[in-house]
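Side project, low priority. Logging it here so it doesn't get lost.
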Amino acid sequence: MRNISEINAAAASKHQELRRRQSLLSLMGVLVVLFVAIGLMVPAISATQETLSVDGDGASTVAAQEAEGEDAAVRMIDLATQALKSQKYKLTGFLTPFEQEIAVTIANTLGSLKPEFNGGFDGAERQRAAFIHDDFQGTPNFELAVLDAKWNAEFARLSHRDVLGSLMSLGLERYCIGDIIATKEQARIIVDKKVADYFLNNLTHIGDARVEVSLGDLSTIAPKEERVKDISSTVASLRIDSIVASGFGMSRSKAADEIKAEKIKLNWQTVKNASQSIKQGDILSMRGRGRLEVVEVRGQTKKGRTAVLLRRFF
């Protein structure tokens, strides 16, 4: 017969195994929810196949987006479980708005965690998430820094894309870099504080222009201001090309061209199919033209068109 210590040890081992299985089941549930959300399950695959039948060149783009979404979800689940174990908090890298929604889903699904976000200034698009345990009593340090990169505007005209391209060429991952506020003669770059010195020492040129980079003050960044315009309209259908045409003031064929050129995003994911349907609450964005919110779908008119209320952010 086994003695008491052996029985207790066996019971403890079974309890530990049960907790491990419960944890794995919980994580599997999170992954299923997230993969459905980011289009990695069967329904999204079917939609992707329809898209590729319209434009076969989009295969690599769609695959890359799915892989990025999956990688981001897995990284965040790992950080969230670390926060649960430590009963403190864990920081992510900079997240897109879509990835921020995934972070909220992870925290809500796992429980005992609350997500907080900070991108360095009010209105920042790319933000870091902190998975904070309910028992943590402190304030999370988001470890943010801002770099001021200046150039001679008389000899160089640099854009947001130029700045980002030069930063990425230095070999660090995109999630180390937050928003980039580019003006005529400088760019203010929000970064993970841990990589600030690396950029200070290695970012010497943006394109062909020589730049001077210094550490700035986050408190001097003004909140992002947006102009808003409400647009009441009727559309032939809730196809995305129809909504884009109405909201951004262009022909439907032009909207289809912009979609084909990958300039349109729906809920922060690149759109490849002009016939894709939208719904109330969706957010569309167009490179260089701002964002568009589908505030309300009001139903059909007597002529069979669909009345919508759109809100455009400049």
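Brief comment: The first helix runs from residue 4 to 37.
Revisit when time allows.
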